[in-house]
Amino acid sequence: MGLPTHTAQKGNGSLDTGNARLKELGYKQELKRDLSVFSNFAFSFSIISVLTGITTLYNTGLNFGGPVSLQYGWFIAGGFTMIVGLSMAEICSSYPTSGGLYYWSAKLAGPNWAPFASWITGWSNIVGQWAVTTSVDFSLAQLIQVIILLSTGGKNGGGYEASKYVVIAIHGGILLLHAALNSLPIAVLSFFGQLAAAWNLIGVLVLMILIPLVATERASAEFVFTHFNTDNGDGINSKAYIFVLGLLMSQYTLTGYDASAHMTEETKNADKNGPKGIISAIGISVIFGWFYILGITFAVTNISSLLSEDNDAGGYAIAEIFYQAFKGRYGNGVGGIICLGVVAVAIFFCGMSSVTSNSRMVYAFSRDGAMPLSSLWHKVNNQEVPINAVWLSVVISFCMALTYLGSEVAFQAMVSIATIGLYIAYALPIFFRVTLARKSFIPGPFNLGRNGVLVGWIAVLWVATISILFSLPVTYPITNETLNYTPVAVGGLLILTISSWILWARHWFKGPVTNLE
């Protein structure tokens, strides 16, 4: 498994450079290569979806640090995320395949370590992606439940509060819609991806202006930029500790940009446009995410009231902000409910794109024989869509959500893999790039030059840091109900992956294999 060179793309001036590079890497073109650089960007941008992540975890930011954590934590997480993205973009330029991270690890770890590196990275990536889809679509189900609650009078007006079984049913319905959409040709998905990107951009601009404008009471600039909330009710008094916990909202939001890598076999000139998709998705998300945080936080006047489970939205902070802003000015919260609908559409698009990315990872991983029944999941239909991989991803995401019926603690542990598990998969190929392949790495059209190793090390250290920080307890005293089960979930995933390698996969899995005849 020696490292290939970049020569084939120059052999035919009319040949797409991504197509030529894919052939160099040992794969034939099976998916339709029809995505532009904007379409590639749109998939990652709609998965990052600042409207999704910030809306879903705004409570966490408010509770742990408040405005200071929200504002400055966003830029800290955003800056380091860009560093991780730059390292990934450099590797993506050299290896533009749907396999993405696991393929990169195999090539960068060298012949001796390639199968193991590929196995660990691939399963961390694929399970992390399934957890992302689970958490995104479940958060949409929860938001729909809140919209129904507010539409029927709110918690204090006798509104309908759905049971957890109803929420799971809504979640299942959303996944079915996403599976149906992802069964359509890539040209149709490309259109929806671009629509999703536009919806997120315009939605942020509208909401950041509209909500504080409508609100009859607004926070001062001093509050928005300097207030630090220590009244978390969780027994945590250290400001540094509180600030760190507040970072979770930002880092959870800024995930999923590996979608640009997974879509490279369907992207024109992918060795150039894949990296552009990764970097632009992160950069624009950081800017527009801050706009959204800024606008919404100017409408925050009473943190404890927003976080109270006794408010009309049942403790869903942003829903309460939207609802009360319109109710305070117009006497009813209909406008706020409509604004929540705008967010709901953005989350829907986010889940749709997440399933797209999931299915391409399943397709590529099974193409190399890494999954049970690989030949089944690798199949593409007449429209060049990996249809079986789409439905597998949806079914597994639904099964992961079923843990919510048994224990909310177990469900939170499951979805924690969406952040930590995914970032471990991001860091592994970067780690191999700056260690085992430090001298042998052959960059593609996009590269960081002599700064590549330094940027790579910073990226690896940041992932190691957040993996530790997000495993810390979030409530004291620690009990079975308050324990942070993130290290248990992520550790369990790593134990299963390594054990399966030792007992089973090392005897037959050889890493990425060519499918050229």
Automatic annotation (TrEMBL):
Residue intervals passing through the bilayer: 37-58, 70-89, 101-121, 127-150, 162-181, 187-211, 278-300, 330-351, 385-405, 411-432, 453-473, 485-504
Keywords of the record: Amino-acid transport, Membrane, Transmembrane, Transmembrane helix, Transport
Recorded topology in the membrane: Multi-pass membrane protein
InterPro entries per UniProt: AA/rel_permease1 (IPR002293), AA_permease (IPR004756)
Gene Ontology cellular-component terms listed: membrane
Subcellular location: Membrane
Domain of life: Eukaryota
Pfam families: AA_permease_2 (PF13520)
This protein's name: Amino-acid permease BAT1 homolog
